[in-house]
Amino acid sequence: MSSNADEVVAGRGENVSGQSAEFVVLNEAMFGPAIQEFRHRSATSQADLAERLDLHRSYLSALENGRSNAAMRAIMRACRELGLEVVVRPKTL
Predict the structure, then answer these.
(1) Staple partner for 86: which of 25, 44, 74, 82, CB 3.0–4.6 Å?
(2) Domain named HTH cro/C1-type: which ranges (predicted)?
């Protein structure tokens, strides 16, 4: 394994603290867990995030638990067809 702290390995890059620096989303079921991980890191409750997004908390819960919807499946199919990958990582300035 490389010593590069930001390298993506097996779908997840790990930084020096051992936390994932980013998530490579390979299918629609992986997107939600990535969102959940970063929500936890920001110490934001599911209810608070759902309210800020104007979503029902149960819908956010379903997404975080990998239960996708038709729109997410279509997005991931389009990405696969075009040879693209979806990466979730903290925004940089």
Answers:
(1) 25
(2) 35-89
